[in-house]
Amino acid sequence: MKIFEEIESEVRSYARAFPRVFDRAQGAKIYDHEGNEYLDFLAGAGSLNYGHNHPVFKEKLLEYIQNDGITQGLDLHTRAKGEFLESFNEYILKPRNLDYIVMFTGPTGTNAVEAALKIARKKTGRENIISFTNGWHGQTLGSLSVTGNSTHRGGAGIALHGSTRIPYDGYLGDDFDTTNLLDKMLSDSSSGVDKPAAVIVETVQGEGGINAASMTWLKSLSEICKRHDVLLIIDDIQAGCGRTGTFFSFEEAGIYPDIVTLSKSLSGYGLPLAIVLMKPEIDQWSPGEHNGTFRGNNHAFVTAKAAIDHFWKDDCFAKDVQRKGRYIADRVDVIVAKYGEGNFNSHGRGMFRGINCVSGDLAGQITRRCFQKGLIIETSGADDHVVKFLCPLIITDDELEKGIDILEQAIKEVCDKADTIPEGKDFFEGDYSVSKEVSKAGH
What letters, b where the CB count within 10 A reaches 16 and e where it falls short, cover 345-376? Predict the structure, then answer.
């Protein structure tokens, strides 16, 4: 459709990587306007953990709309909001012994991060925030200040202040515990690091390259925050809602963060919804001090409650995600061993895993070849060098096997072609419909 080229902004990205017009989707599959079927290993950048148009959620939503349920409620008390809070408290918070206040922010992840940073500063009276190399927390100014990617930080157009960057787990090698560095810097009044209000961290860095922190590192980080009277913020926007095999990605570490941000798959249906969880003593907002028009997406409350009721009343779903995560890890390890030769390695946790390629060019060649074969899969990392698994958690075993088979075949073909194409030539030159200029715009 020419309309996209005529009036849509050049800022678009996913549409460049997957140049089709899509018009329907169900489960782990999405279809273009010509009826071509694709397995979706992108899943709305992790906002579709339960797949497209889950029939249980859809039925509840259509029933709510048919009965003229409230759509926009600001922060008014509504039945939909109350029922969501009851389910969230009963099946998510109480079983994990988490005593959190729930704050509804604007509906995107970056809104939640902004609120988390703001309340941490209000509670402590301090400004500085500790963040980590390769961290990704959103595109608004506060979130960008704690984001590592230089391209996106540069897009702010102004200097970004109020954050000190520390190396993430593994950044300086497997034998260097970077929490010791943080502890030393916070203990030394001459380190140049102002005592922070909070530390913000992803347990698995999604956009940063699927870097997974160890449970030992996370426990140490939590202890250091307590020792220095610093709040710990877990950004669980992409790693949460079951992606790592438990509802919260920090559960295995046995820690109790002061603040948690959730968005993406929280609604269960791809509808915008974001919340901040905080310990009761942190909830020091004055009424209306941090507000926004769209804090009341009641349609999202309906589907979020349906997702919790359907999947999280017991641990069956979590165990199935863990099983699929082990299958992905095993398959990826075999692929890396077979085709690696120094070019690939894998990392991640649960169904949040990536294949780290030698370069962004190689990763891009692989994902474009996958798309030709009916698999939508994207890249992440500072140089778009990691092929990233974000398939729906509800994907069937057959679909999961098929998707990884396609990926393996694409890697094989790219590696084989690399041995025969003269240096400086594009692996897919002449056999791919998208121009180099467009395809390299990428993610």
Answer: ebbbbbbbbbbbbeebebbbbbbbbbbeeebb
E-only strand ranges, 263-390 = 275-278, 345-349, 352-356, 375-376, 378-380, 386-389
CB atoms within 10 A of CB 23: 11
- What pLDDT score was predicted for residue 441? 33
Tell me the two tokens of residue 331.
């398959």
Q: Kindly state whether residues 74 and 98 are assigned to the same domain.
A: yes
Per-residue confidence (pLDDT) for residue 342, from 0 to 100: 65
At residue 426, does pLDDT exceed 90?
A: no
Q: Is the pLDDT of residue 78 over 90?
A: yes
- Residue 17 is part of a domain; what is its CATH number? 3.90.1150.10
The CATH number assigned to the domain holding 71 equals 3.40.640.10
pLDDT digits (tens, 9 = 90+) for 262-311: 999 999 999 999 999 999 999 999 999 999 999 989 999 999 999 999 99
pTM of the shown model? 0.92
Identify the pLDDT of residue 418: 67
CB of 262 within 8 A of CB of 275?
A: yes
Same domain, 198 and 295: yes
* Residue 244, C-beta contacts closer than 8 angstroms, at least 6 positions apart: 203, 204, 252, 325, 349, 350, 351, 352
Q: Residue 286 and residue 332: Cα distance in Å, rounded?
A: 50
Q: Are residues 46 and 80 in the same domain?
A: no
| The pLDDT of residue 358 | 82
Find the distance separating the first CA and the last CA of the chain, reported in whole Å: 21
Alpha carbon of residue 157 to chain centroid? 25
Residue 397 structural domain = 2-52+316-439
- Contact in structure between 122 and 284 (CB atoms under 8 Å): yes
Q: What percent of the chain has a predicted confidence (pLDDT) above 90?
A: 87
pLDDT of residue 341: 65
Alpha carbons 117 and 127: distance in angstroms, whole number: 9
- Residue of 145, 167, 168 lying closest to 155 (CA atoms): 145
Strand, helix or coil for residue 74:
coil
Domain end call among 279, 311, 343: 311
With pLDDT > 70 as the criterion, what percentage of the chain qualifies? 93
Among the candidates 266, 296, 311, a domain finishes at 311
Yes or no: say if 328 and 393 are a contact pair by the CB < 8 Å rule.
no
Look up tokens 């593994």; give the residue.
170
